[in-house]
Specification:
It is a single chain. This protein is of the alpha+beta class. It has 9 helices and 5 strands, in the order αααααααββαβαββ. Strands 2-1-3-4-5 form a 5-stranded mixed β-sheet. The longest helix has 20 residues. The protein is elongated and about 65 Å long. The N terminus is likely disordered.
């Protein structure tokens, strides 16, 4: 109770949201204040506090597909700020929306990793799952060239072991061309499957994604 009262007094005494967020963490600011941090500044006619308040109203009222356009119509916003706000919301959705989602088949993981298909370099991604096949974390293990991401089993498995994952799914993108696995992809799949199972972690799949399709090693019988 005393800590809450102290924090409240700090808010009244200091208008600097940046300092308060640094001192108390990002869970401390209100939704409006978080938007103030994203926006950074307002205009001479529209202070950042008013811009954040109006932006919050639009966010709560708008369907996702219309958000950027509606934010851009706010006086003092501009296209760059509208895109920054929408991008922050999309990043938050991607990072938190997957947690505890249950994955029963390869196609169910695709919505959470498909944005990597748009990358111009190869990204190797590891998805950690608990015993109920709920997503615990999705992380990029390695970023390679336009045609290859160099990985080692210890880089893939270190975090799943530390978080006591029961299973994992690996995924990487082919920036150009087909999502069919290369000889190197097949060898990587074999090594990761053997290494993970030695550590008591089930290796459920290695999925390759392109902009238009995906290839599941499990669906094609490569994990037998």
């Amino acid at each position: 109770m005393e800590q809450n009262e102290k924090a409240y007094e700090e808010v009244k005494q200091s208008p600097c949201i940046r300092e308060l967020a640094m001192q108390n963490g990002l869970s401390f600011p209100s939704d409006r204040e978080l938007l103030m941090l994203i926006l950074g500044s307002g205009t001479r006619e529209v202070p950042v506090e008013s811009l954040a308040r109006r932006s919050l109203e639009v966010i709560r009222e708008s369907p996702p597909g219309d958000l950027v356009a509606r934010l851009g119509c706010i006086t003092g916003m501009g296209r760059s700020k509208a895109l920054a706000v929408a991008a922050a919301l999309e990043l938050g959705r991607r990072m938190s929306g997957c947690l505890r989602a249950v994955v029963n088949r390869p196609s169910e993981i695709i919505p959470y990793v498909k944005h990597y298909a748009m990358e111009c370099r190869e990204h190797f991604v590891c998805v950690s799952l608990n015993g109920a096949h709920e997503i615990m974390a999705i992380r990029v293990v390695s970023i390679g060239s336009t045609s290859r991401a160099l990985i080692h089993p210890r880089e893939v498995l270190a975090d799943p072991v530390a978080e006591h994952a029961s299973a994992l799914i690996c995924c990487h993108n082919h920036p150009f061309g087909s999502c069919q696995p290369s000889i190197s992809d097949s060898e990587t799949t074999r090594v990761l499957k053997e290494s993970s199972e030695l550590l008591g972690i089930s290796f459920l799949d290695h999925i390759i994604i392109s902009r238009d399709d995906y290839f599941s090693c499990m669906e094609h019988g490569m994990l037998v």
